[in-house]
Amino acid sequence: MLNRNAEALFWIGRYMERAENHARLINVHYHLQSEGISAGVLQAGANADANADASPGTMCKWERIVDALGSRSVYEGQHDSYKESDVVHYVTLDRDNPNSLVVCVNHARGNVRTLREKLPSELWDVTNGLYLWLREKGTIDFSRESAHQFFGRIKEWTALFQGVCQSVMPRENEWHFIECGRYLERTENTLRILQSISPHGSITDNKAADEAELVYPLLQAVLKSVSGYQAFRRYYADGVSLDAIIEFLVLNTVFPRSVHYALHAMDEHLRGIELLDKGLRTAHDRIIRQVGKLKAELACLEGEELSLDSEREVTKHLLQSTQQLGITFAGTFFRVGEVSA
Amino acid sequence: MSMAAHSQFHSYDSQSFYDEMFDKESSVRTHYEGVHRLFGRLKPSELAAKHATLQQRMMEEGITFTLYAHNQAEPLERTIPFDYIPRIIPKHEWEEIERGMKQRVTALNAFIRDIYHEGRIIKDGVVPRGMIVGNKYFRPEMAGLDVPQDIYMTASGIDLIRDEKGKYYVLEDNLRTPSGFSYLYKGRSLMSELFPDLYLSSRVADIERSLNVFLSSLRSLAPSGKRDPFIVLLTPGAYNSAYYEHTFLAQQLGIHLVEGRDLVYKDHKIYLRDLRGLRQVDVIYRRLDDEFLDPLAFQPDSLLGVPGLMNAYRAGNVAIANAPGTGVADDKAVYAFVPDMIRYYLAEEPILHNVPTYILARKEDRDYALDNLDQLVVKETSLSGGYGMLIGPAATGKEIAAFADAIRRDPSRYIAQTTMKLSRSPVMMGGAMAPRHIDLRAFVLMGSDAHVIPGGLTRVALTEGSLVVNSSQGGGVKDTWVLSQ
């Protein structure tokens, strides 16, 4: 396999996972009524003053989404407020945003195209179908009313993509590269969401009862945005608190969108990659060790370390390590200078 | 705003009854303005599209209930008719209802505890003994038994109606296994998806946290204060008409959905048989009537329950929610005494009133009722779900005569009530708004505190002029919005 093929595959996995995560995240927040949440309960962020016209709750919600996508600085470069319509356009159909849904899908499609002869034809059909469908969607026919359906369709498309990979791809390097990309993206995504809910450790559990009532829908939204609400209940029952959610999303070993699970899955696929080139094999071993270190860190992490970490240094560190992993991955398998963001 | 300007509302009469949306001058009540504006300008084609989406979602999600009839080869699986004009309750109105509900349920709980222990209220002559011991739902097995936290009803559903002046009355108490939670929650999520602008701009009080409260309440019942109790929802099975609700609650609360045959009794404990072997059950939220719970204690031919369950319960090794025997207090004759219970146990005046009720076992009440059957509603004391009812003003002479005979034969089986002019709310019927009668089932959860789920389930009598709102009788539902400011 060519180096650039490996890179393309890795990014197919990442982009499709990213599209799926975006869809979940926005869909949940779209229907979240957060007007009751005052700036005092939720840190409104640095821009609060610039948005006097937006109610603090509304602004928080959309601002947090942009944070969860890790695009704060890019977004703020283009917009001066966190208006719902701006954020939704930015995240879904904005072709100038390198991380918007339509751009992610376009990249994935472009990558599948360069590999058409190596990949099952069904994979092309799905990716191309999704792209064409999405291209038809203008802002005009995208209203709040159709939001639920729109994001529901995105989830269906990405599930279809994953299902095709799962059911027809030979378990060879192609498959492992796509899966490495998927799980690395997932690890990062979950960590970014955790970072975004408490940029300054501002949601805490020791609030008065009426504030706890206001924070509850938000905590629930965090779980739902990674489809973890039902799974969470099974482990923590009625203990819905920020600490419990962080612990669950970082350390749970069986929930497929937890950091622990995603990292271990990535490790497995990384080891599944078979290389003949000696130099590459050395580099491959190195990145396996790097993942191993991160796994070891997680294994040694106590729940308490997370709950006492009001500044979210732990998740921040994990996020940085994961991002570093992405860079190492690119440096190992892909030709220098050809790394996409 | 005048009605005439809005085609959806023409021919809408809001005179003879209290209308939720329009006042006597046919102006829109302030808290309904947003809703009125939206539904007034929706085109028939848009409405049809919403309707189609709604039906499809409900079928896909399996939000259905099952109707059984004797002459039917296959039971009828249908979606509950869902009307998308929400019922709106202003904050101050709700706060009063909430206080009234907490008061009522607290008194009812104290009553049930009392009659299974000291029986003070009987000794003091407030409630007649015959009404208790002769009650179909009185469970002698519960006498002297202490239930966890003294909570008999973890979940209760209180039905409220409004008269022509808009005043709220309690129509009945459902203290055994009230249902409707799933419709309430699904209705909310459908509304927020179908009409997000309206929903988000209306500042509706959150109901999601109430599920957490529900779970906390169940957990608080765990014997010996176990920290991580194992909780199951006991269902009669997939053929039960409310099975969808059972799956919904089990899923949302993260508890196990089990049938009687999944549970075993051993050494005064109840265990769940699963792949890992036997697992001790601490709390059972049962959606099964008392008489089916334990064939050894109650109905011997029942296959739905768990033989030995009552032994384990008496030994204090498992909690049952709601406790057996709570039905004694939701009997329609006992209902008449609830205001007295509130005064007796809490030394407070009732915040919510009862519908004027005649106890037909009393001669003077009976004589009056028999003379005025065409004006009254007659109910069998132990039946619910809209079965066994006579609605005098709507009944034929023949029906009235038949009920009069039945009452004379066994007067204690019946009560009679003033026919209330149930309030009305607009529903969408064939592209236009039409007034229909509604009630409200509000849910109270008892744990360390009493908690009322904001809003509850508004039930609609979809047949024009009908007063029967029960889903088993073809009624529909509406989402109910309590405004948070």
Write a structural description.
The complex is a heterodimer of chains A (341) and B (485). Chain A has one domain (4-333). Chain A is built from 15 helices and no strands. Chain A has helices at residues 3-30, 56-68, 72-78, 84-92, 101-114, 121-136, 144-168, 173-197, 209-225, 229-236, 242-251, 259-272, 278-300, 303-307, 313-333. The longest helix of chain A has 28 residues, at 3-30. The two termini of chain A are 22 Å apart. Chain B has 485 residues and is α+β, with helices and mostly antiparallel strands. Chain B has a domain at 356-418: Dna Ligase, domain 1, CATH 3.30.1490.270. In chain B, strand 6, helix 9 and strand 7 (256-258) form a beta-alpha-beta unit. In chain B, helix 3 crosses helix 12 (338-346) and helix 6 (181-194) crosses helix 7. Chain B: InterPro entries: ATP-dep_Glu-Cys_Ligase-2, CP_ATPgrasp_2, UCP005522.
The first-to-last residue Cα distance of chain B is 23 Å
How much beta of chain A, percentage-wise?
A: under 5%
Global mean pLDDT of chain A = 84
Number of strands of chain B: 22
Question: What level of helicity do the residues of chain A show?
Answer: 55-70%
Write down the secondary-structure element order of chain A: HHHHHHHHHHHHHHH
Pfam family, one (chain B): CP_ATPgrasp_2
Protein name (chain B): Circularly permuted ATP-grasp type 2 domain-containing protein
Domain Circularly permuted ATP-grasp type (chain B): 86-461
InterPro entries (chain B): ATP-dep_Glu-Cys_Ligase-2, CP_ATPgrasp_2, UCP005522
